[in-house]
Amino acid sequence: MRSKIGDLSQALEGRFGDHHALMCQLHLDHIAHLNEMIAKLDAQVEAMMVPFAQQRDLLATIPGIGQVAAAAIISGIGTTPAEFFATAAHLASWAGLCPGNHESAGKRKHGKPRKGSQHLQPLLVECAWSAVRANGRLKARYHRLVLRFGGYRNPAAKKRAIVAIAHTLAVIIWHVLAAGTAYTDLGPDFYATRSDPAKETQRLIAKLEALGHTVTLAPAA
């Protein structure tokens, strides 16, 4: 709004009396009070997180998870999730990040994610949005999933992909806390380097032939 200060000043001229000043002051006092309460709660959280500083720092090595998110995750699942969830998949399921399944006419179909933790699920989804902005394996996985689910022009595809990334984060969190080691990113080229060149060549040839092309291969110079 800084670029509009002149317009705002002109708009308020002659129409800002004592009543308006009182109301503005009350709003400012309320905001100051809220900020004071938030500061006190933040200090309390920091004090309570002192015994779990090591685990908090480990979680903060995961893309998309900062110190505040790490504290919220620990408050929800503790520092030893393996005691309560036998596997990482159990944690993801409890968080509500596993797609539901339903069977019809003998065919198993994917459905909407099941209801899970009302605190952990939205937190991990928010962390997932942050994670896919960082250059690494999670961003590469998100890109592959969006294309598989329908492309970037399809909002539903992006939504399904980000829930899948949140599921991946839940799995990573379980392993990081269970092993007590920091997260090591596999890199943005993880999927490209692990693919078999021969199989990828055959896949591309088949795709071109399906489009009506005749493919002839020649060794690179």
Number of strands: 2
Given helix and strand content, the structural type is mainly alpha
How far the N terminus sits from the C terminus, by CA atoms, comes to 59 Å
**Portion in beta strands:** 5-15%
Q: Total helix count?
A: 10
What is the molecular shape?
Answer: flat
Helix/strand order: HHHHHEEHHHHH
Cα gyration radius (Å)? 25 Å
Physical arrangement of strands within the biggest beta sheet: 1-2
Mean pLDDT: 88
Biggest sheet character: 2 strands, antiparallel
Unreliable runs: none
Supply the number of structural domains: 1
Helix content: 55-70%
What does this protein look like?
- The protein is flat and about 85 Å long.
- α3 crosses α4 (67-77), α6 packs across α8 (155-179) and α7 (137-149) packs antiparallel against α8 (155-179).
- A hairpin with a 2-residue loop joins β1 and β2 (107-113).
- The mean pLDDT is 88.
- It has one domain (24-194).
- It has ten helices and two strands; from the N terminus they run αααααββααααα.
- It has helices at 5-12, 18-48, 53-59, 67-77, 88-94, 120-131, 137-149, 155-179, 190-194, 197-210, and strands at 99-104, 107-113.
- The protein is mainly α and 221 residues long.
- A two-stranded antiparallel sheet has the order 1-2.
